[in-house]
C-alpha cells in the first residue's frame, strides 16, 4: 500500500481517541520505517511492504487502545534531549520544561551548584539542568529501581557525567550528604478520586507517580517538611503541581518558614510551578 493511503486510514482510525491523530500515525510509521516524518511529504507514493505494514498495524492497534505514543516508540523529547521512556515512570511533558526554566532563572550559571531532583523518573528534569549547568552537580532520586536504571541510561546516552541517580524514598538515602542549593520535584499531586485518572494516556502511566493523598498534597507537604534539613542557606525549593494547587503550595511553604514564595504559569496560562527560598 502507498504511504499516503496507509496514513490516511490510520488518521481515521485514531481520530476518535487522539487529538493528535495525524502526528501519532506519522510518528508510528516513521518509527517502523526508520525515517523522519518529512519523508512522507517527499515520497507519498512509496509502497510499504507487508512486514512493515504488519508492524505498523500492531502499533496502531495498541494506540487505538489508548497506549501512549511515547511508550510505543520508547522515547520522548524533553528540553534539548531525546530520552528513553518506559511504563515504569511518567512520560516527560512539555509543561514540566517550565520547571526547568524557573530553576535556571534562580541559579548562577557560573557557580558550581548542588541540585537535587526528587522523584526523577526518566531523569528529565535532572538531565535538562545538568546539560545547561555543566559546572553543577545534579543528583536524582526515585523510589522505583527501574526508573533509576532508566535515568542512568539516559545520562550515559547523553554523556552527562555531572548527573547521578540513586534509589531513595524522597530523602531517605541522603543522610549525611552535602546540602543542596536547589531542590526540584515533580511529585505525585493528583487526588486519588480525580476522574481524569481513568481517561486518555494517563491510564497507562504508573499511579504511584501520579497520586497522592490529602487532595494530592501529601507528598508535597512531606517534602516541604524535610527539605530544610538538606538545603544550604538561601537555597530554593520548587515544585511542579496541579493547576489548582498553587495557593495551597504557597501556604505550605510560607508556614514552613520559606520566603520569596512565588508561583509561575505554564504554557497554558495555569499556575504550575511554585518556589520558596530557605534562609
Short account of what is shown:
Helix content is about 35%, strand content about 20%. It is elongated.
pLDDT averaged over residues: 94
- What name goes with the CATH superfamily of the largest domain? Vaccinia Virus protein VP39
User: End-to-end span in angstroms?
Assistant: 65 Å
Give the % helix: 25-40%
| Radius of gyration over all CA atoms, rounded | 21 Å
Give the DSSP E fraction (strand runs of 2 or more residues): 15-25%
Instruction: Give the total of beta strands.
Output: 9
Give me the CATH fold name of the largest domain: Rossmann fold
Which architecture name of the largest domain does CATH use?
A: 3-Layer(aba) Sandwich
Order of helices and strands: HHHHHEEHEHEHEEHHEHEE
Total discrete domains: 2
Please characterize this protein's 3D structure.
This protein has helices at 3-14, 21-33, 39-42, 50-64, 69-73, 97-106, 124-132, 145-157, 213-216, 218-226, 246-255, and strands at residues 75-78, 81-84, 114-118, 137-142, 163-167, 180-185, 231-240, 259-265, 271-278. It is of the alpha/beta class and 279 residues long. It folds into two domains: 3-65, Ubiquitin-associated (UBA) domain (Helicase, Ruva Protein, domain 3), CATH 1.10.8; 75-278, Vaccinia Virus protein VP39 (Rossmann fold). Strands 5-4-3-6-7-9-8 form a seven-stranded mixed sheet, with helices on both faces. A two-stranded antiparallel sheet has the order 1-2. Strand 8 (259-265) and strand 9 (271-278) form a beta hairpin. The protein is elongated and about 65 Å long. The model has no long low-confidence stretch (mean pLDDT 94).
Amino acid at each position: 500500500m502507498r504511504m499516503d493511503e496507509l496514513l490516511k486510514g490510520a488518521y481515521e482510525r485514531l481520530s476518535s481517541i487522539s487529538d493528535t491523530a495525524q502526528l501519532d500515525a506519522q510518528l508510528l510509521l516513521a518509527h517502523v520505517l526508520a525515517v523522519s516524518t518529512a519523508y512522507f511529504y517527499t515520497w507519498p507514493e512509496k509502497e510499504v511492504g507487508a512486514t512493515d505494514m504488519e508492524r505498523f498495524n500492531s502499533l496502531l492497534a495498541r494506540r487505538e487502545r489508548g497506549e501512549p505514543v511515547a511508550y510505543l516508540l520508547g522515547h520522548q523529547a524533553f528540553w534539548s534531549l531525546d530520552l528513553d521512556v518506559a511504563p515504569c515512570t511518567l512520560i516527560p511533558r512539555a509543561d514540566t520544561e517550565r520547571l526547568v526554566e524557573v530553576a535556571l532563572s534562580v541559579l548562577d550559571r557560573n557557580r558550581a551548584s548542588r541540585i537535587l531532583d526528587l522523584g526523577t523518573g526518566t531523569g528529565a528534569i535532572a538531565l535538562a539542568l545538568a546539560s545547561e549547568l555543566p559546572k553543577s552537580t545534579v543528583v536524582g532520586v526515585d523510589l522505583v529501581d527501574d526508573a533509576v536504571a532508566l535515568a542512568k541510561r539516559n545520562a550515559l546516552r547523553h554523556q552527562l557525567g555531572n548527573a547521578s541517580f540513586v534509589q531513595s524514598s524522597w530523602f531517605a538515602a541522603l543522610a549525611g550528604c552535602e546540602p543542596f542549593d536547589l531542590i526540584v520535584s515533580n511529585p505525585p499531586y493528583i487526588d486519588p478520586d480525580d476522574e481524569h485518572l481513568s481517561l486518555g494516556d494517563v491510564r497507562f502511566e504508573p499511579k504511584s507517580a501520579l497520586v497522592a493523598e490529602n487532595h494530592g498534597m501529601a507528598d508535597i507537604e512531606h517534602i516541604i517538611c524535610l527539605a530544610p534539613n538538606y538545603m544550604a542557606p538561601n537555597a530554593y525549593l520548587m515544585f511542579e503541581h496541579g493547576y489548582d494547587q498553587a495557593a495551597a503550595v504557597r501556604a505550605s511553604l510560607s508556614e514552613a518558614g520559606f520566603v520569596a514564595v512565588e508561583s509561575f504559569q505554564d504554557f497554558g496560562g495555569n499556575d504550575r510551578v511554585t518556589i520558596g527560598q530557605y534562609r
